[in-house]
Amino acid sequence: MSIPDDTYTSFTRTDTDAPVISSSRRSKSKDQELTSEEALKKLIQAANHILAEHRKSLPKISVLTWTREFLSRKDSKLIILSVILLIAFYAYGAIKSDRYQFRLTGILVEAIMILLMLIWNGFLYFREKRASLLELTLRVEKIIEQMKTTEIKNIQEMRIPFVPSITFTKVFRDGIESTIPTYLLVEGDIVELFFGDVAPCQMQFIAPTDADLSPSKLTLNTNEVFKPSFFSEPEPQLLLDNHISNRGRYRFKIIETPWANNLKCVLNQRRPATVLCRQAQVLEDVFFKKAIFIIFAIVFLMTLPRYIVYEVIKSDRRNQALESLIVLPVYCILPILPFTFPTLWLVVRSFSNATVLVLFELLQISKTDYEDDDEVDEFDAEAPPPTKNVHLDRAAVWSKFRYLLTQWDLSALPRTNNLFESLGSTTVICSLDREGTISSPYPSVKQIFFPIENEETTRLDVAEDPEMPFGVRFEDQDWSQYMSSLKPLGLNLLLNTTCGALQGRKRIDQHQKWSKLHRYAKTKPARQSCLCQLGKEIGFTDDALQAFVRRKEIYAFAPYHPSLRERIRDDQWELPIMVSLIYEEEGSGSYQLLSEGHAEVILDSCSDYWDGRGLRPMSQAMEKKIYDFYQNAIVNDLQCIAYAYRPINTENGNPIPFLDSPSSSNIAFIMLPPSEDYVVYAASGSNVSITTSNPPSLSTTPTDLSRSQLIRLKHLQAGQLEANLHDFVFDDRVTHKDEEKFYREVINGQIFLSMATLGHEPKVDVRDFIEDLNLAGIRFVYFSPTAERESKAYAEELGLETDWNSCILLSSPGDANSSSMGYREPHDIKARLPRGVGSIRSHLTKVDDIPLHVSLFAECTPSTTLEMMKIFQEYGEVVCCIGSSLNAANAQAFAVADVSVAMEPMHTRVQMRNGMWCASGRGVKEGLAVGAMLNSLPCALFMQYDTSLYALTDVIREARRLTNAGAAFLIGSYLATSILLILSSCLFLPPIFTGYQILWIMWIICPMLAFSFLFNPHEADTMTTMTGKNNEHLKDFKRFVIYFVLRFFLPICFCIAVFVSSLYYFDGQHDLSFVFGSYGNVDWLKLDSDQQWALVYAQNYALFAFVWYLACTSSTFVHRTLSLRGFPPFKNRMWVAMFFAR
Asked: How confident is the model at residue 239 (pLDDT cuts 50, 70, 90)?
């Protein structure tokens, strides 16, 4: 079967990775590609449909309904009752009083002010409730409006790598194949998948027109890995022909819109209430269910006997009942009613969020390093984390504060995310990805493995060179003794690279190579890491490569390799591929074949190995050592690349004619079919299937070998792996079959050189970051998709605990992606660990709380990760989630976490400003920007790729400072005011404060001083203090009561003494009848002017003493535990200003 030339024209390009043009001559199908405009319309329509459904499910925004809801609150009822009683008393006093009592006018003003404050609080309640309800929805609408008015640029300026933390799909639109984020796909899109790709949504295979297939049955489900086993019905030969004609690419039709499904989940997710919110609820229960009734009962029971005995029996003054029994108790409960709390909370939240957002943006802009404080010993294991010396621009903070206070910030979502409250009380930080977030996106070389003499092997450890960007060095001091073994490898590494570094190109991102292989197959990140620096470390220079000219690239695919028949987890599944490059040495005219690729395919192609001194035939013992090293590396979370070589000898040293032919493609394809036959697609555009005999029977081979090892062993015993070093002979007229035969033969009989293992290295500061989190009482949790052993290997790199009971498997036995053996340690050690996320809750209830202390979870999927985070929250953990902004699987986890941070997994060259994406040009948005914006919809913070994770500890430190500011002082001051009024009543004194004086303290003095605590300087122990969980609210309330009594008992007594003395002095009667008792022998509604002024003066003196004390004692709240000498309050300039402005 021949393939027309027009089917491969777009794959013979030799320039840069420009987008592939979809020709009308491509194999036809009934499905038509969408245009970009049509796709955008579909995406917007799907989003609008989800939004419309979501709005229907929301409570109706009804002023009348919400007004009733507000007025039915306990505090609203008490305030309304207080207003009614005060107005009633004013009317009663106006009728009964003989003389003008200006105190009555004050009571009327007080009632009006309280009523106005109630209306204002109702307005804030309505505003905030509406904002919380619609904030996320409006953000979606804003994004949709941006997509309507701007053009989405799908052709990226960067090449998209294959890493798990970045989900992209190749789609055909406008006759162009482009790579776009998964969330930009829509129903009806035509996409291309490689073997190993994960389906972002449900999609249907588009069968070739000449294939007798049933597309309705060939459907990929969401998150299903596309494997050769997907095709179960067709004959193998049909698949081989189809694979060759498509160059390993298969077309599918999207049958659902991915973003619509996740958008529905994101909109319906509800985060738990914050610690501060639940503490406020606890205080509300304490005050409104107990304290208010206790206060009212105490005052009523103390004044009732006095009223009966002194006013009724002795003096027969019954008209003071309303004031004595009602108004005085009302005054006593006024201080603990939440008049100013809504306004103060709005101000504090807006200012705190503004501070956090401005600081976070400044930390990302600043290029200075993180350093320990001068007073901190760098060797102190309990030292707080380092900080960056940045100057927080107060003008920027105040500007952001005004914006957050008056506008709806749809970028930070302050009401949805509860930014500063959640950051300040975070107890768990969950990492959803590793590539590009907590590790570099590309793995770095760890070890070099190669054969030596006497059928032995050795390995050399390789590490990054801190003195050279992207440089590497051997850690073994005696590595040079293996130079004869390393030289062929070094040449292979340098000639196999396409990173551009050898041409002197400057790099701003990770050192990586770009092969045309990424057009035809999905590869592991290790295959994208460039190791040319290792070749230079071995000793090669750029000049040594000038004599070599690349003539051909040969891609060998093995989608039906025997190794794939083993049970392989989805995260480890990789299509075995070998890339072979043919180089011509211009001086001598000789040809070399240099290969790299999957260890299984390389071993299949090697008949000999190089031991540093000469060629040795590949033996069973050597093959086993190589394979054992490969398997051991895989289970230790490493990726392997094998290297091989062979000379290409021609008769009389003649040139190979078709390698220089201008009509020949520079790429040839070879595929190993299920029957172990090779199908070759050469440059001429034809393919041929070469049938070989079936492999020998495997019945006599050892059973402890893998399937691929058994086949190689049989081939080795049958002599089928002998060296193929004969001279190639070419006639004057070379046919396509001759060319195909050459490619088939030249990749066999190679010489095994070595194998490199690569692993993901944690980013700079990540290990120290995790260690400092532990000191701050924050547990770092990593959700790993790999098995237990691989997960523990990477956890060791992070510095996490990997002893027994340190890892829990979230997969259940029998799951498609679970390990069959379960826990690797002995059963008696692991007996108390649950297996599967479904058994976590029962384990926590019936056994112990070990799952709440484990930092590593293995065999995780997006759904199990999501469920485990919910379990954390159920047991009081405050979860901060960090993950890739370009991983579609993270969206729901972002929505569930208390606070989420989207991280840039690699340099995307996308700009951000104030948490919002910026267009790359006028009216143009990068597809990357839009995809990340859709994926990180619930996130409040976006962290750029080169930002250190210490920026997160900096904002947590700032949020803790803001969270701890003022709450204890405010509660203590209000309680002290209430108790002062209670004691004055119990001592049969006139009211120590008037109503408007109480409101002055509550509405002006205390909020001013409390607000100044937002400007407290940082405390040294902020990040070494443990925070409480979200189920341990006010557990130290008894301690607070003790501290409150110690702080306020003497001042309360002092203020009463000032009041009594002042009243005695200004009365002028020089007896205590006016001080103690019922205002003397005259009815209080008939007090003369002198008596009224005496009471006012005494109340003002008492107010002055009390306010002065509040101002002075507030200095001790600047730091609640250190002495004033150790932490002077004058460091807080705002507090100093408020102290003198009170």
From this structure: low
* Domains of the chain and CATH, by start: 63-132+272-339+964-1023+1035-1141 (1.20.1110.10), 414-439+762-954 (3.40.50.1000), 444-547+566-574+590-666+685-759 (3.40.1110.10)
pLDDT at 22: 36
Query: What is the per-residue pLDDT across 16-45, written as a single tens digit (0 to 9) for each?
Result: 333 333 333 344 444 578 888 899 999 999
Residue 429's closest CA among 22, 74, 70, 893? 893
User: Phi/psi at 863 (nearest 5 deg)?
Assistant: -70, -40
Q: Who has greater pLDDT, 69 or 1036?
A: 69
CB atoms within 10 A of CB 382: 9
pLDDT of residue 1072: 55
Contact 721, 715 (CB under 8 A): yes
831 CB contacts (<8 Å, ≥6 apart)? none
Using the predicted structure, report yes or no on whether residue 121 has a pLDDT greater than 90.
Answer: yes
Measured CA to CA, the distance from residue 535 to residue 203 in angstroms comes to 43
Query: What is the per-residue DSSP string for 772-809?
Result: HHHHTT-EEEEE-SS-HHHHHHHHHHHT---STT-EEE
CA-to-CA distance for 993 and 1063, rounded, in angstroms?
A: 12
CB 925 within 8 A of CB 974: no
Q: Check pLDDT > 80 for residue 781.
A: yes
Output 472 or 309, whichever has higher pLDDT: 472
Closest C-alpha among 614, 609, 607 to residue 457:
609
Q: How confident is the model at residue 235 (pLDDT cuts 50, 70, 90)?
A: low
Q: What is the pLDDT of residue 299?
A: 83
Q: Kindly report the backbone phi and psi dihedral angles of residue 650, in degrees, each rounded to the nearest multiple of 5, phi listed first.
A: -120, 155
Q: How many CB atoms lie within 10 A of CB 660?
A: 11
pTM across the whole model = 0.87
Strands (E), 250-312: 250-254
Residue 481, helix vs strand vs coil: helix
Show Cβ contacts of residue 1129 under 8 Å, excluding neighbours closer than 6 positions.
Answer: 1114, 1115, 1116, 1118, 1135, 1136
- Residue written as token pair 């074949």: 593
Counting residues of the chain whose pLDDT is more than 90, the rounded percentage is 30
397: tokens are 């903070």
Question: Residue 70 phi/psi, 5° resolution?
Answer: -65, -45
User: What phi and psi values does residue 460 have, to the nearest 5 degrees?
Assistant: -120, 135
Phi, psi of 275 (to 5 degrees): -60, -45
Helices (H) and strands (E) in the chain, counts: 34, 33
| Cβ 637 vs Cβ 439: under 8 Å | no
Asked whether the beta carbons of 914 and 403 are under 8 A apart, the reply is: no
The per-residue pLDDT for range 436-447, each reduced to its tens digit, is 899 988 888 999
Q: Is the pLDDT of residue 837 over 50?
A: yes
Q: 578 - beta bridge partners?
A: 556, 597
Q: Which residues contact 866 (CB under 8 A, 6 or more apart)?
A: 892, 893, 896
Q: Rounded CA gap, 1000 and 340, in Å?
A: 11
Place of tokens 């008037």: 994
Sign of the CA dihedral 1048, 1049, 1054, 1055?
Answer: positive
Structure tokens at 630: 């490969």
Q: What is the mean pLDDT of residues 996-1019?
A: 90
Instruction: Give the C-alpha distances (Å, rounded to integers) separating 89 from 97, 411, 424, 778, 1111.
Output: 11, 50, 46, 55, 33
201, 254 in Cβ contact below 8 A? Answer: yes
Strands, E assignment, 387-521:
387-388, 428-431, 444-452, 456-464, 472-474
Residue 663: predicted pLDDT: 57
Tokens of 320: 């003071």
Q: What average pLDDT does range 941-946 have in this prediction?
A: 89
Question: Which residues sit opposite 857 in a β-bridge?
Answer: 783, 808
Alpha-carbon distance 736 to 684, whole Å? 6
